[in-house]
Write a structure and sequence with these properties.
about 260 residues; seven-stranded mixed sheet; 9 helices; 2 domains; two-stranded antiparallel sheet; elongated
């Protein structure tokens, strides 16, 4: 099916093409929104549309210059947008279909997996409630489909069964491992005292401290759920899908950890 808009032939494929490009640009905008990279993103878009306009007007010299700039600039863009590209690829690759299917099979053939997950969730919640009441600062990274370990520096290996008492002991102020993040993988505490990459987002509130910036930083680079207990207020929050949520209830956190929040 072909339609005519003035002197332009417009087909169904052209419409699909424009729609897909729009979706990709929108997702890239969401990933870069609130960061310094958003300015670079709009600058690149402006240069690209200018190049297309110049090419349509057959301005050969300017078109050649802009074309070379765009062609050579691909490598530079991969360096500048390294973090954003990683997030975009995680967005594409970590759609929950595969993980949901594997989780469904586990629950179908074995009740132990479901009970183990439930035990892990309740242990984390109990520890967070007690640490919140005592205003004990905590940072817990719960791995999902991708491994956040490559983004965590200077961590100490623990490799122990996850219990509420052990979590509280790690974050106790006189513990040698309390200063840093705990990594939880496969229902176990893999490491403690880890240093997380701090977020550079401009949308963070002024009152938010380094613990919250670190939580958002790892949530921007992986699909991990990062739980924060504030040392100043005792409030519980979490970072997930590159978003920071403050002062949440344990019921909301339980729903998230159980896989009920996308």
């Amino acid at each position: 099916m072909i339609g005519t808009l003035g002197f332009i032939d417009f087909t169904l494929i052209d419409g699909i093409d424009i729609l897909l490009v729009g979706v990709i640009i929108y997702q890239l905008y969401k990933l870069t929104r609130g960061t310094v990279a958003i300015k670079i993103f709009f600058g690149i878009l402006a240069i690209y549309f200018l190049w297309k306009l110049v090419s349509a007007l057959q301005m050969e010299m300017l078109g050649e210059i802009l074309g070379q700039f765009i062609g050579v600039g691909v490598i530079a863009l991969m360096i500048v947008f390294q973090q954003e590209l990683r997030q975009f690829l995680l967005f594409i690759g970590n759609r929950e279909f595969v993980s949901n299917q594997s989780s469904l099979l586990k629950r179908w053939f074995s009740d132990k997996s479901e009970k183990g997950d439930l035990k892990m969730v309740e242990s984390i919640l109990r520890a967070c409630e007690r640490m919140s009441a005592s205003k004990t600062g905590a940072l817990i990274v719960v791995a999902q489909t991708s491994d956040p370990a490559p983004f965590i520096r200077s961590s100490r290996k623990v490799d122990a069964a996850l219990t509420a008492i052990l979590l509280e002991s790690i974050f106790f102020k006189n513990s040698p491992l309390h200063d840093g993040a705990v990594l939880v993988k496969n229902g176990r505490i893999e490491s403690a005292s880890g240093v997380l990459p701090a977020s550079e987002s401009d949308e963070l509130l002024k009152g938010v401290g380094m613990r919250h910036r670190a939580a958002l930083g790892i949530a921007e680079q992986s699909d991990a759920i990062v739980i924060i207990v504030s040392e100043e207020t005792g409030e519980i929050g979490y970072a997930f899908n590159a978003k920071l949520n403050l002062n949440v209830s344990t019921d909301e956190l339980r729903t998230l950890l159980s896989g009920g929040i996308e």
